[in-house]
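Ticket 4471: requesting a sanity check on a complex prediction with magnesium ion. Repro inputs:
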Amino acid sequence: MSDKRETLGFQTEVRQLLQLMIHSLYSNKEIFLRELISNASDAADKLRFEALASPELLADDTELGISIEVDKEKRTLSVTDNGIGMSRDELIDNLGTIAKSGTAEFLQQMTGDKQHDAHLIGQFGVGFYSAFIVADKVSVETRRAGLDKDAGARWESAGEGEFTIEDIEREDRGTRVTLHLKEDQAEFAESFRIDSLIRKYSDHIGFPVSLTAIGEDDAEAKVVNSATALWTRSRSEVTEDEYKEFYKHLSHDFADPLIWSHNRVEGKREYTSLLYIPAAAPFDMWNREAPRGLKLYVQRVFIMDDAEQFLPLYLRFVKGVVDSSDLPLNVSRELLQQNPDLSAMRSALTRRVLDMLKKIAAEKDDYQKFWGEFGQVLKEGLVEDHANKDKLAKLLRFATTHNGNETQDQSLDDYLGRMQDDQDKIYYILAETHATAVASPHLEQLRSRGMEVLLLTDRIDAWLAESLAEYEGKTLVDVAREVLDIPEEGDDKAQEDLNKEHKKFLEKVQGVLSERVEAVNVSRRLVDSPACVVASDQDLNPQVRRMLEASGQELPESKPILEINIEHPLVTRLSGETDEGRFNALSNIVLDHALLAEGSQLPNPAEYVRRVNAFLLNTDDGVKSE
Ligand code: ADP
Ligand code: MG
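Returned structure tokens:
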């Protein structure tokens, strides 16, 4: 029986992905088997879960498993499971489209460079379509558990633009995927080859995987894997390679993880966790809707993917499994949220991850890799997770005026170790770019005294600095604030005395700039620059203000404070200027330059250019008093 045969087109993204995948994954082609076995095992997991509520779904076929058949003569390989199966509609949706959000953006990142693309595709997870790396035709026959025999469906495609779908009668529930191997891929119809691939990729799967070689002398089905879920074994029995393979199975990543932690907790709450830190960030790390979280099992029964309740958002890059002995088998996302054990488990798992990070932090090279990938996400922890503030602070890395480049590789402890004897603050500057930060006039005095400054240029840094506030009893100080606490030196004069001494001059400048600045002060932080602007202590940092404004927020007007370097020749010239027009123009130029130096936009660039040009031409044009 076969009716309603339809030919349908793949979603555009599928077509693109297929092309790219076949091209860039050729050297990794054997991973298709891992993907198909992993789908079969997911299908068995899902059925076992649904059968908790509807045991009749299992009928008399209660032993869940996966069987693989190879046929050398026909050059075929098939992977069959007796799991959940798919209805006709599910088949069309699941194998004709890609549901992952951000797929289009992901595809745009592809360059055509094999290595680069293979790495990206690895993070994306190739799944079912990887079958087309080795097959020129794939056929999927399936029936959903609980549906009648004649509700089966067959999907077939050559992996080009389209696939066909038809209704079939199917005796067994579950799915059979058959690969018609390309002529030069006959090796995947050899039983010894497949045998070793199953051992390599799928040994840890909690269902038996059997292999049958049709046409070979010994054509009996043999169970090839050890069929115990890896995390249920004791740590000493699991090899490094097995841990790594399990990670790849979980995450679909091609690369090895950086580190993992496998623990069994006994006592009041009993659960096992196996947590991994990947070596590279997933393509959708910045997509807030992207699924994240651990795979949840209860007493070995798979319950759900992406259980995000077990770790805070800032640890969303962690992959792994939790298997609880206490949670009810019918736990849903909502029930999980209300479970009284959840928050204790969440704190314990968070601590485990932070301990792993502490371990890699001891290996500078590894940690730099981690920081480069995930540092910005981890910074969110300072804002979100006050309970672990101290642990997180030790894990932070910064670019500073000490290392002289953009690399974020200095810890706060490194900073403390280099503090001057008379220094009791940790100084930082917020800027949009590294170049602006390094060149900022605000650093001059500190630099001349050999005091180090953290250069903060990530979007989240303003919140980070505010949440952190202090480290090991040392306050963090923004160098662009009105009150800059630099220890006084020798014949240093206090700010107030300096202002008093130059009162007349300051008032005159203030008079000219009254629309643009809150106040004019003599600066103690400048050495080489004529002026800089600072924010009063009640005001938003200009960096934060720019960010909020860019995101469309309306903020109350606020004027900065202008600080001038009273010893600078330009300022000397200004104070000696007798022509009112020139005095006004020069005052404005000094302020404009201070704004430009901190990366701000000028309110009226054309007027600024006119003023400067007039000065350069040394004419009175354009600098006349208004
Ligand atoms: P993923 O497994 O990451 O979701 P895949 O491309 O591997 O992506 O598979 C796509 C979807 O097809 C799966 O999510 C699942 O719904 C369905 N699927 C694939 N293989 C099977 C199978 N053997 N049994 C049931 N459903 C399957
Ligand atoms: Mg899959």
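Notes from triage: The chain has a mean pLDDT of 90. Leaving this open until the requester confirms.
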